[in-house]
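One chain given next:
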Amino acid sequence: MRVGRHLAAGRVGIRTATVLIAIACVGLLAVALARMAVERPPSSGASAPPTRASSAGTPTAATPTPRGPGTSAAAGIGSTPPGSAAPSRPVAPRRNVAPPPRRTYPWHTGITSTTFWVGEIFDPTAPDGSQRISTYDARWFEHYGGCDGVVVAGECRTERRTAAAGWFPTRMTPRENPFYLDVPFDDLNGPVGWESRCRVVPWADNPGYAGRCTDRSFSYLKNRWVRLVGPNGATCYGQVQDAGPGEYHDAAYVFGHADARPANRRYGGAGMDVSPALNGCLGFAELDGDTDRIRWQFVEASEVPRGPWTRLVTTSGVTTD
């Protein structure tokens, strides 16, 4: 009986060892398969890894980050190990396409500005003495909605504007933007401005302007936006609706980068007229004087912030009759 028990115990030990060896073999096989799956290069049908720009600007392959809880980006996972075969399909670098640069227009500083308004007649004997018309709109008075001020004894006069009313007129309702101005370059009337406009106007080749050089019904200046800073630092915006004061082909001043002085010598050497709304917004000391100084620059419409000047934006084109 003692010998039988020893033989039975030996058989049990042999079976146990056999089972353990089989389990160990299965575990080694699983480890080997997992390693092969990790180290195998991508096949020809695998998608290429995404690219990213390096600090030097050259596109490089991005290392994927493992997904799921408790995972981290381990070295070598998801990338080709050193010494292994290169991917069967080359990865094309992605071009970084930069947006077109935004044009910055020069500042014009220390510029004397006078005030004008729709309906004003300051010199009935002068060809440019009436603001019932503008160089771009033969029916400016009508299109604007009438006198941009107050009518006293049949005369259209200016008025002081207030912030509470958004600098808008108090006695009439305008149909166009009351934040208007002029610059001394007329790109429609006269051979100088007409023939030179596509050479001197900086935005002549921009979308919406390109190809209009010989279009007599189109102005490169009308409705363009301008940023202005007043004597006390107030910043306001307005749209070009006329040409002047005093000069009409002063390209060096209007479009130049050297901060040239206006060629005009009348009206205190003014280089711009502004509307009563801009007069109030900019904080001018005089309602109709020639001592206030400003600085200004052209801006794109996309750069104009919301304000009283965007409450009613003028979009009308040129009117010749």
Notes: The beta strands are 51-53, 59-61, 108-115, 150-152, 155-157, 180-183, 225-229, 235-243, 272-274, 293-299. The longest strand covers residues 235-243.
